[in-house]
Fold:
Amino acid sequence: MFELTDEQKEIRKLARDFAKNEIIPVAAEYDQKAEIPWPVIQKAFGIGLWNLNIPEKYDGQGLDHFTEALVYEELAYGCLGVFGAFGGNSLALTPLLISGTDEQKDRFLPAFVESARLAAFALTEPNAGSDASAISTRARKVGNEYILDGSKCFITHGGIADLHIVFASTDKSRGIKGLTAFLVPAGTPGLSMGKKEDKMGDRASHIAEVLLEDVRVPVANRLGNEGEGFKIAMRTLDVTRPAIAAAAVGVAQRAVDEAVSYAKQRVQFGKPIAEHQAIQFMLADMVMAVMASRALVWQAAAKIDSGRVDSMLSATAKCVASDTAMKVTVECLQIFGGYGYMKEYPMEKLVRDAKITQIYEGTNQIQRQIVANLLLK
Ligand SMILES: Cc1cc2nc3c(=O)[nH]c(=O)nc-3n(C[C@H](O)[C@H](O)[C@H](O)COP(=O)(O)OP(=O)(O)OC[C@H]3O[C@@H](n4cnc5c(N)ncnc54)[C@H](O)[C@@H]3O)c2cc1C
Structure:
């Protein structure tokens, strides 16, 4: 049984009010413009809803994963694309937080709390999506430097971040065991933004190609040892998947709330459609699925906070919550009938947004593969 502390209730309320007052009113505009919502990020920074996972030692918020999940559900309730900036940063800073040396943290983290800045986690490549062993970005050690060459795609904050965490191969013959992670600060010559993607949903979040040509970083910018990159990436995703799952719960809860309110006021056959049992059962099934997903998210996040990261639980939370978000948003659109299909109403955006939660941070096929592998081990 999870009982929220007063502090957790307070920050959840802060995030809920922020979503209501600052995100929902501008969500459609940023969805249409497909732009990063900088004014929203600046306001979030101002009230302490940014840099949630940076430890207090570095003047960050230092939230545990459970509390972070509470906040992310609320932000994504407002708009998944806006949440993308928050979640993208949290994802990108996690490798530094879990594998960086004190010297690396001292060097890179303070800038993130001085002002609202972006970080990027650059793993995916055109020919290496689910299969990280196919990564072809290379890192050659020359003297006291590594020289990186290659390209990444679909990178949240790609090319515009203040810090890119780049996963490259230092030994191609070793596959995933030859991957190494590097900290590449903005302004490093040779790193540039390629094509910015025009997405179906999640449109307030920026994703783009990252081009790396003769990018030189000092050995001191290597995260962990050579060959530890894949391990760092997987440990990162174990920790961040519950955050994506929390966001998926936010999207699903929003869809249910919109559908409940619509069903109460839409009259057909002489009574509100909410009085038709078929609609009532749809709503009941959906809210049950959302509650079950939330319970899984809370359990997965609490497990991480207990110091016993559980890959199976993190993958399960991500998979169940995102499948729920997809199913629930589509069903809620159905409750809106033809109006649900119109851009004037909130449902079509929620359907477009929900879809990405089944794809990023590992597709749900990959989550099932993780669960099956652990189950059969
Ligand atoms: C909006 C958005 C944001 C993103 N942000 C980032 C980011 O910040 N950093 C980053 O590094 N990446 C990011 N990505 C990339 C994302 O993580 C990948 O798209 C995802 O991992 C899948 O890779 P892929 O697109 O190449 O698909 P593929 O790997 O080519 O998969 C295609 C299909 O085959 C299935 N499949 C593949 N292998 C198997 C298998 N072994 N068994 C069963 N089915 C399989 C997949 O599930 C999928 O359905 C982002 C993507 C998007 C769309």
Notes: The mean pLDDT is 97.
